[in-house]
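[audit] Reproducing an earlier prediction to check determinism. Same input, same settings, fresh worker. If the tokens differ from the archived copy the diff job will pick it up downstream; this log only records the rerun itself.
[audit] input (440 residues):
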Amino acid sequence: MDNRQISSLAIGVLGALALGSAAPAMARKEAAAPVASAAMQAAVAGMPQSAEVQSFYSRWQGPAWFSDGGHAATELAGILRRAPLDGFASGPALAGQVEQAAKTAATGSKADAAAAERILSAAWVAYVEAIRQPSRNVTYGYATLAPKAAKADEVLKAAAAAPSLRQYLTDVSAINPMYAELRDAAWKQAQASGGAGVPDRRILANLDRLRSLPAASGRFALVNVATQRLEMYENGRQVDSMKVIVGTNQYETPMIASVIYYTTFNPYWNVPDHLVRKTIVPNVLTQGQAYLKSRGYQVMSDWSANATVVPNDQVDWKAVADGRVKIRVRQLPGPQNSMGNMKFSFANGLDIYLHDTPSKALFAKDQRNLSNGCVRLEDARRFGRWLLGREPVAPSQEPEQFVQLPQGVPIYVTYLTARHVNGQIAYTPDIYGWDTRGSS
């Protein structure tokens, strides 16, 4: 079984299926179902039973797998042959079952054809369940962004209703354009080399990450931490991109799927605790409180929205230095503020966001994993213009001015070290080592 530990449905959906007619349940209640041939029974012997698929066929007519001359069945077998790239290692074995069932159905009785219909349906449900598993180690800011779990009745109803079953299989298995391009290139490469062996773990890791991205409709922003770039998409087409700065190897930028709903102009910067102790406290102890004032730092009473400013001389700076006391320090808006002029927040529970920066010279570096985890933008104003659909202008000079977007824009922070480029697979350095140590 593959390492995604799919449920018992996906482990063995082809099982010892009831081999009666595929007609609606009401018709079956009036007459005994014919028995499938020994050859068809042998094709499914020893397989675990799928109660979900059985239940569906007791109430509904399933997809017409053979009504198009067998093209849909052939497409399904092909999808299952390459399914190890989709994280579904049992695919090739199921492809053999599908092909045998289709062959027997073509020369057998109506009962054989009915049994074959169920076998193909069960194989399709198993595959869809596998590809709808959430990507590993992705934090979903909203549950609606996670892949929807496959339910046998929903999967089979959708397939049965499709105008072209063959095309429907192709569309569902594509998942999204970037995913389909990389997987198809990897499959073509594997076929050219004989098709043997286990897929490259880098390809598997990247395909797993790509499964969290949306299909080809609408707008979304993608931060590729591996290449340190932000890409903007509209209806499946990249319309703009820019450099970004991401987290260091000590403070890795995590993978997130969320939605940006507003822009914050003139933001405060709440200094991370480790930077308070590493940078601010030593400078206060050597330069005095003038250091704080010169850089716009304020000590706050707590981390709440109603926190008040604490006079600097009331802080035990030595206790902060040795970790006995923790304080909240924020930086006022201005030219030195590490957030720059604007930031773009999104739900994730990890305090990660995109933001402007006054340190523009760092974008000239080839390797830009330099931040404390958040993502610094090369051109925050341009990104804000794309999000808002107009020139991004602060409503006032007051701190923390929130401006709502016309419509929420999904944001995907991911880690892609393999991409399809001009018909080939291009690899990017694995800056965090996530490919080699199995994180994805």
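[audit] rerun output stored. Observation attached for the diff report: The chain has three domains: 8-173, 217-267+336-427, 273-331.
[audit] end
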